Amino acid sequence: MAEVRTPARPDFSSRVIHWQTANGRHDLPWQQTRDAYRIWLAEIMLQQTRVHTVIPYFERFLERFPSLEALAAAPLDSVLELWSGLGYYARARNLHRCAQSIVSGPGGSFSADPDANVRLPGIGRSTAAAISVFAFGRRAAILDGNVKRVLARCFGLAGGVSKAQNGREMWALAESLLPEVSVEAYTQGMMDLGAAVCRRQKPACDACPLQSICVACREGRQAELPTRAARRALPERSNRLLLLSDGSRVLLQRRPPSGIWGGLLSLPELNGESVESFALRQGCRLLDTQAMPPITHLFYSFPPDHAGTALRRRNQQPAGRRGRLGMAGTGGCGQRSLADANQEVAAVATARALIRRDSPAALPWRAAAAGLAPSRPPYRTCVVAGRMPILPIAKRPKAIPQARVTKPAVQPA
């Protein structure tokens, strides 16, 4: 990291505090509270996710789990259901583990000490500091992506010897700039500046309170700073997913707890197995098969292509019910903990009338466009608008007591 240049460090924090008081955000659902549970929940949801996306999830989450104890007592699948669509599902699993760890530990609540909170599952140094600042008024530095960008540009911090060394020096700078008072306003102001003014692209330098002391602005290096790591070429992976339906239900598979979509429900993957062999192994007699168009789903780690096959089957209880396979009513698929790309496959099937839609519990995905489009982060499903003809693909099955049909939940717009 280049030598830190601080032309006006003594008044850095006061500039940020005054700007935040007049121009910052003050009405977010997790503000104006000292509730550590709400602050922690918001901080986890906001990791790699925009504020406008988080707000409806945050509100529904609190309605379902109003306290740390309620979250700790809930089944993991219920947590994943509400998290479905936010992505980065390890956050939801760690959220659940963290709540259980706190409730079962001494005191049963968050500590005011960031060094204690950072040892909890899923809580890093910056999140631990945010909890201490906003819930307890403690003096602690945060260093999320927005704050890093503000500091790198203001003080002209380029790349250095190693990522670890850069991190240590950036943390040292962040801590040295902390004010003695109004630490909450300063911390919120740094996050607001990075989100609304010192943006990654097209920063609004004319509206920035740090403009006169900013190295990047003075030297025209806004696009250069902060230095970004070279992008790796993303590998590609192709999967074949099965949409096995009897006309009112779809066969879903519970994925392993770790890895991509860990712990979520998913359409079964063939993995080299034939459609006929898989159906026979699950105790299903196929009536018809139909290939679905491939869907490209982008991940930050790799972009797999999903080729779907829609199947019609006679109503027989799948043999795999005893394991990780189970049936879900088509009215409940969209609000269960269903893997994101699987929602896209199901959306295509719905649009092509491969799944019945004449049930009162119609698929709860919202119509977003007059056509189908690939999802982008946070991986929202686009379904064609308007009514479409219904093509029955099997006789309505008799009720099976073991099958659980859930009511659709309201999905975010």
What's the short version?
The chain is an alpha/beta fold and 413 residues long. Helix content is 35%, strand content 11%.
Task: Reconstruct the topology from this structure.
Blueprint: H1 12-23, H2 36-45, H3 51-64, H4 68-73, H5 76-83, H6 90-104, H7 114-117, H8 125-136, H9 145-154, H10 163-176, H11 183-197, H12 215-219, E1 237-245, E2 249-254, E3 265-266, H13 275-281, E4 286-291, E5 295-296, E6 304-313, E7 325-329, H14 340-351, E8 367-369, E9 383-384
Parallel strand pairs: 1-6, 8-9
Antiparallel strand pairs: 2-3, 2-7, 4-6, 5-6
Helix pairs in contact: 1-11, 2-3, 2-8, 9-11
SSE topology string: HHHHHHHHHHHHEEEHEEEEHEE
Low-confidence stretches: 2-8, 312-324, 327-335, 350-413
* Oligomeric description of these chains: single chain
Rg estimate, integer Å: 25 Å
Reported by name, the CATH topology of the largest domain is Endonuclease III, domain 1
- What is the averaged pLDDT score? 76
Question: So, CATH architecture of the largest domain?
Answer: Orthogonal Bundle
Which CATH first-tier class of the largest domain would you pick? Mainly Alpha
What is the total domain count?
A: 2
Largest sheet at a glance?
Answer: 4 strands, mixed
What proportion strand?
Answer: 5-15%
Q: Whole-Å distance between the termini?
A: 43 Å
Enumerate how many helices there are, as a single number.
14
Helix content: 25-40%
Counting helices, strands and paired strands, the structural category is: alpha/beta
Sum up the overall morphology in one term.
Answer: globular
Number of strands: 9
